[in-house]
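Postdoc handover notes: sequence design on the structure in folder B. Input tokens:
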């Protein structure tokens, strides 16, 4: 039964390791003065204008040469 627990727990152990190293990097390791000076200020998010879609032919329109060229 213990043989099944080890392979099932490996992804969780790896995830915990990566998260722990990330926390260690953010909170414990010292930051150099150059990193603090180069950090850009966050620009406010401005969404782009919505894209205008081309008009699609109606479902009940027969497939003519004009409609097929669109």
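Designed sequence:
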């Amino acid at each position: 039964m213990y043989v099944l627990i080890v392979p099932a727990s490996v992804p969780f152990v790896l995830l915990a390791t990566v998260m722990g190293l990330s926390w260690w990097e953010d909170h414990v390791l010292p930051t150099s003065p150059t990193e603090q000076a180069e950090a850009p200020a966050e620009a406010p998010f401005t969404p782009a204008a919505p894209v205008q879609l081309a008009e699609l032919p109606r479902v009940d329109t027969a497939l003519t040469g004009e409609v097929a060229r669109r």
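Context for whoever picks this up: DSSP finds three helices and no strands in the chain. Don't rerun without checking with the PI first.
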